[in-house]
Specification:
The protein has 13 helices and 19 strands. The strands form four sheets. Strands 2-1-6-7-8-9-10-11 form an eight-stranded antiparallel beta sheet. Helix content is 29%, strand content 30%. Helix 8 runs antiparallel to helix 10. The protein is of the alpha+beta class and 404 residues long. The model is unreliable at 1-5 (pLDDT under 50). The longest helix has 17 residues, at 63-79. The structure holds adenosine-5'-diphosphate (ADP) and magnesium ion. Residues 63-64 line the site of magnesium ion. It holds the Pfam family AAA_21. Residues 1-17 have a biased composition (Acidic residues). One of its GO terms (biological process) is SOS response. GO terms for molecular function: ATP binding; ATP hydrolysis activity.
């Protein structure tokens, strides 16, 4: 009795309810999909991602265009919207054209924090005069925590309103945005979360010549998507991580036993030690085959210090021979429980290794890209085990789930 009186009402309140949790500024959510509207060859498409997803389709069907949407998203917080668009050839190039008429593009990224309802970020652009653009709408809703917490912002391209207080006067939840700029840099909680999420998407387009060249020492915060800083990124790995990359590479290129950075004046490269019956031989990166350098750079990207949430790899089959390719896909699949992987491919050998639920089929229909999962009929054929997805692809019979 006497004890209870020592607590004030405030104390009791505090122990009962410690308030909503802060937005997860540093946690990275799972990317669940992307929705494209009037973007490049897509009029309308919805790509859902699993841990490991493979987009398969013939040439010019729209595989690379889907990848460009991810790269554009990542570029927005990295370079700002005007430069991000310029790096993709400008707003006008991105607009979907059917019958010569340009349409206004929009991209929506769906993501989810564990245990919370779905979240999204969405940006749609329109033209001002001729080829100039404006942001028509940009918004995000971030759901997190176990108590239904949520932060959001919404902008019409010139005014932003956010769910929580921005820097500035305590009661000012609105702020102005300069023409053509993204609302992501306005500092609301929701925009921080979206920025970090977009930055955690990495598209990898390895240029073997850059991996093989003498490289300048670089910051290792970020893996250069073309492979231009592989030596520095490798050097920053722990002993265990180096061993893992070396083992992965030896599954693709038998005999690789050690990889070591090597300096030449102010430049650097990697040395690969290969075991052969006649003893160990050392090769500098530039002496290795293009396929080996590509495979190495992809494995390094999967092991880098700053682990991306989603890695997008275009056509891993290029320059990599069949046996090595199967090992590479196995490694990508097993790593995808930690880092989501999206690949594009037209290799029947790759899709033989991919679960049918992870396949997305793209095709071109009247100059529009279409994207869908594999049809139920085709799945039931595959379930019999009498034929593989690759064999169906070779026979041009990997049917997508077409919606009328
Ligand atoms: N703005 C656009 N509007 C409509 N179609 C486009 C646009 N930009 C590119 N395309 C079409 O996209 C196709 C190339 O798609 P891409 O994704 O590169 O194919 P792939 O599957 O080979 O990677 C080309 O046929 C091109 O005509
Ligand atoms: Mg392509």
């Amino acid at each position: 009795m006497a004890e209870a009186q020592e607590f004030s009402d405030e104390d009791v309140q505090e122990t009962v309810d410690d308030g909503p949790s802060l937005p997860p500024l540093w946690d990275i959510p799972r990317i669940v999909g992307i929705e494209l509207t009037n973007f490049l060859s897509y009029k309308k498409a919805h790509l859902e991602l699993s841990d490991f997803t493979a987009i398969v389709g013939p040439n010019a069907s729209g595989k690379s265009n889907a990848v460009k949407a991810f790269r554009l998203l990542r570029d927005i917080p990295t370079y700002g919207l005007p430069v991000a668009l310029a790096r993709h050839g400008g707003f006008d190039q991105l607009r979907h054209r059917s019958n010569g008429k340009p349409n206004d593009p929009a991209i929506r990224l769906n993501f989810v924090f564990e245990g919370a309802p779905p979240s999204f970020y969405e940006i749609s652009l329109g033209s001002v005069s001729g080829k100039r653009y404006r942001v028509k709408r940009e918004r995000a809703m971030v759901n997190y925590g176990e108590r239904g917490e949520s932060v959001s912002f919404d902008s019409d391209g010139s005014r932003l309103s956010a769910s929580e207080r921005l820097a500035g006067p305590a009661d000012d939840l609105r702020s102005a945005i300069a023409p053509g700029q993204s609302a992501l840099s306005t500092g609301s909680f929701a925009s921080y979360v979206v920025q970090n999420t977009l930055r955690s998407i990495q598209t990898i387009e390895i240029n073997p010549a850059l991996v093989g060249a003498l490289q300048d020492p670089s910051s290792t915060d970020e893996f250069d998507p073309a492979g231009g800083n592989t030596t520095s990124v490798f050097e920053a790995l722990t002993h265990e991580e180096r061993t893992r990359v070396t083992e992965h590479l030896s599954a693709v290129v038998p005999g690789i036993v050690r990889i070591e950075p090597q300096n030449f004046a102010d430049k650097q490269t990697l040395a690969f030690y290969q075991h052969s019956p006649s003893g160990n031989r050392k090769f500098l990166a530039k002496q290795m085959s293009d396929g080996t350098l590509r495979a190495f750079a992809i494995m390094l990207a999967m092991t880098q210090k700053t682990r991306p949430q989603l890695i997008v790899i275009e056509e891993p089959e290029v320059a990599i021979h069949l046996g090595a390719l199967q090992s590479l896909v196995e490694i990508l699949k097993s790593a995808s429980s930690a880092t989501q992987v999206l690949i594009t491919t037209h290799s029947a050998d790759i899709i033989d290794e991919v679960p049918v639920d992870s396949l997305r089929v793209v095709w071109s229909d009247q100059d529009q890209s279409q994207l869908a999962v594999v049809s139920e009929h085709t799945r039931s054929v595959l379930r019999t085990g009498m034929i593989t997805p690759g064999a169906l692809l070779r026979a041009d019979a990997l049917d997508p789930d077409r919606v009328a």
